[in-house]
Amino acid sequence: EVQVVASGGGLVQPGGSLRLSCEASGLTLSNYDVSWYRQYPEKGREWIAGITRFGAIRNGMSSVKDRFTISRDNSKNLVYLQMESMKSEDTAKYYCYVGASDGYVTATGYWGQGTQVTVSS
Predict the structure, then answer these.
(1) For residue 7, how many other CB atoms are within 10 A of its CB?
(2) pLDDT of residue 106
(3) Those residues with Cβ within 8 angstroms of residue 36's Cβ, 6 or more apart along the chain or in another chain
(4) What's the distance, Cα to Cα, between the start and end of the chain in Å?
(5) pLDDT tens digit string along 37-55?
(6) Which helix (H) or strand (E) holds 24?
(7) Residue of 3, 57, 91, 107 with fewest CB within 10 Å of its CB?
(8) What is the model's pLDDT at position 9?
(9) Cβ atoms within 10 A of the Cβ of 46, count?
């Protein structure tokens, strides 16, 4: 069966940096478009950015476009989200979605379990 795992979350100070990773079992991640989303409590998920299987990047949220960067290393079957200059409002649960890179969820896609990011002094 397919399992998508997001990791790398944790506690980071304001202004700090953090890199999240997405990996999968049951499929070859290098063959799929991937997106990162985040979710605040009691709110819907917001699309951060996506990357195609060929490495083309599509940015979503304008508020993080200049601070967050999506990338991938297909030789390692990993997708990353590099987060810089982090702010308290970046505190959220971050999700990896495998199957699309344009902010649209597809019926054939897969969600990771999410990893919590907390920005605090």
Answers:
(1) 15
(2) 81
(3) 20, 22, 47, 48, 49, 50, 68, 70, 79, 81, 94, 95, 96, 97
(4) 40
(5) 999 999 999 999 999 999 9
(6) strand 18-25
(7) 107
(8) 98
(9) 17
